[in-house]
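User
Please review the sequence:
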Amino acid sequence: MAAVIHTLWEKGDKNPIILPSLIPIDDRRVQFELTRYLSDEWVPIIDKDVDGPNSLPMKIDGEITNLGKIQACRRVARTVYLGSAPTSAAAHRGIEDRRIKLGCVLPGESPNLFGDALRRLAGAATYLYQDGNRYWYSTQPTVTKLADDRREQLKRNPDKTSMEIDKRVRANMSERGEFGRIHALPASSNDVPDDLDARLVVLGIEQCYSKESGSPAETAARMILESRGNSPRIYRNTLVFLAPDKTRLQDLDEAIRSYLAWDSILRERTDLNLDPHQVTQAENQMRSADATVNARIPETYQWLLVPSQLNPADAVEWKAIRLSGTDALAVRASKKLKSEEMLLTSFGGTRLKLELDKIPLWRGDSVNIRQLIEDFARYLYLPRLSEPRFLLAVKHGCRIAYMERRILCLR
């Protein structure tokens, strides 16, 4: 204690009380007194996870302004170390979070800041353990460190990350919304049939979208729209495209790597000789990572690319529409298209009559219904129909057409 008081006096400390959080563990004289009866393993642990110029608490305090003003992480780490290191081998390890705050808070300070600092440390420290509301330092690295190492290793194996993203995206496509079909992650334009019903094409992560011209998503969408394999695509007014955001893709990749890291640890729990506490910690972290991935999938796949033409003579325009909401990807896309009248799920006779006369679509004094179906599927300047159900509307439209002395040929 004499070393502590002397060091504080040298530093001009003016705090009204000496709390555990204020003991300058980074001072070598103080550190020697605190570790002289402990194993030598504690010295590098203090330098890394507790106190010192290059320690984790100092790093977090430097990054988070609110915490750095009062050195919250550093003070929390000191308190946890002093309260847990001497009894790290005990059956009932650690100290409660309320006692940690009690060892940190000075008059006028908010306990919530220290709670935030404790949570950040518990999620990042190599030697800090947590069991419910109890925390302690140990000489054995936590499974968090193992997960961090594996997460970094996955950067060198992007195929594994891509496979997991593909699996997640495909699973999200179980709900189709108003689309007849969904073509998830086509390898080429050959994988997208040239059919009459409206479909959503979900592009892969290599085909991400950004607002810069010529993004990989636009290039891939244009190629699929214009052709199927080596043949020109005929029914172009049936396709819309969903693409991942270039910036958000980095966040999704990080979340996927975290999930895979924790999943691999749990699958190897026996080989790693994890104790029950470590298994519980890994299970909780994997569930958290899984929830993060599920949240970031829709955040990443947020761009709907819609081809359109105002008039037959105009060039094809691409509209990039940002999606939001918590529904499945296809459901969000179809809702947005419906609200913008870019996808019609019903088609009344009056509307049909307007379209017939506007272009016009009449072939002389009549038009074959089969021809109409092909027209609406083919031309981007016509309304996009979810499927050829507007044939039902033709029965009502026949009266209007007949009044104008024109006949719809129902064949």
